[in-house]
Amino acid sequence: MNTSEIEKLIEKFYNGNSSVQEEEILKNYFSKENVAPHLQSLKAHFIFLNQEKSKEIDDHNFENRFEEALDNEKIFSLRRIIHLKWYFASGVAACVFAVIFLFNPFSNEWSSKEKEAVKNYVELKKLFNYGNNKFNDGLAQVKTKQRINTPLSEMEEFVNIINNSSKIFKGSKKN
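Predicted structure:
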């Protein structure tokens, strides 16, 4: 038998489509010494299968235990499956209602306290902006006067202090 026919039989064997006679042909082929080089890796596999096929199960109660295991296997009833579907559907519905009521997009009315808080926030922001502008104007005047009267190193130190304080002020303004 040539190797192409053996390869076709191997493919049928691994697909589960081989007959008993074809498996015997494979068994005989791989039991011989002259196996094609590219099929040498399969030789050990087929020898192992033939050895295991010849072994018998030592446990005489194996069939009884196997049948008992099948009898004890829990089988889901159709009623149980329907209940599980309803449990799942009710859980999904509960989640949808929870999201709707937590993030209630239907109430766009603000209470008077909320409106007043927003108004106070806007006024406070205007006040901080006004104070920041005045502070920056005064800082610009101080920088020009200091540049004339002090040495450069003291001037740089003063500018750094002012810049740091203005950064802190701006940071509090953002909050």
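Summary: The radius of gyration is 44 Å.
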